[in-house]
Amino acid sequence: MFAKPRPKKNLLPPPSKKRKATSTIEEISFNDDARTEFLTGFHKRKQQRIKRAQEEAAKRARHEKLETRKQIREDRRREVAEHVETVNRILRESGAVSTQTDEEEKSTEDTDEWGGFPDKPDLDLIDHEEEYIDEDRYTTVTVESVSVAREGLSRPDQSEHEVEAEAEARQKREEAERREAEAKDGKKPSWQKKKKKKFRYESKIERQLTDRKQKAKSRPRRE
């Protein structure tokens, strides 16, 4: 009754019957060491993960602690500044503090500049003696002003030549004392070493005699 439809022609070219070139595997090697490490390293890897997590947590806690301290310092600084500003405002309103203009402040700053310490300050020379008497004791105390320098102590009224001469004399005196001490150490007699007694074994007769003496001494104690 109905005619069969004609089959549709395939517009695509037919597939080629040639085989695709595939890469061939020449050899498969099995690593026993890697397998053993993987199978026996579960605990080790777990401990490494725990340690890494602890280190990261410690770093995070330290960073948070530093941030908290920084925030606290900033809050305190702001509170102090606000408090100072409030106190100054109250004092200005009450009239206890008189405000200065910028020109007056600059003039006071210029006049109050500090030039530092002088090279040689004007010091009153102290050079006197005092005597102290207490029953049978008599003491004389001399008070002098001295200057401290790299070469040592010196009096302010001394010249550089006198200071150098005193330093040389002090050095010679110390050298003489050192030589005298070395000479005394060299004159000490060397103690002779004591000779060690030679150890000698007792003979049989001597041992019997010593045993009898010990027994004779121990008898009256027992009685």
TrEMBL record:
Coiled-coil residue spans: 44-71
UniProt-annotated location(s): Nucleus, Nucleolus
InterPro entries with a match to the protein in the record: Nucleolar_protein_12
Keyword entries, A-Z: Coiled coil, Nucleus
Keyword Secreted carried by entry: no
Compositional bias (Basic residues): 190-199, 214-223
GO cellular component, one term: nucleolus
Feature: compositional bias, Acidic residues: 101-113
Region (Disordered): 1-27, 91-131, 149-223
Gene Ontology terms, MF aspect: rRNA binding
Biased composition (Basic and acidic residues): 152-188, 200-213
Principal place of residence: nucleus
One matching Pfam family: Nop25
PANTHER family to which the protein is assigned, alphabetical: NUCLEOLAR PROTEIN 12
Family: Belongs to the RRP17 family.
Name of the protein this chain belongs to: Nucleolar protein 12
Naturally occurring in which organism (per UniProt): Metarhizium album (strain ARSEF 1941)
Taxonomic lineage: Eukaryota, Fungi, Dikarya, Ascomycota, Pezizomycotina
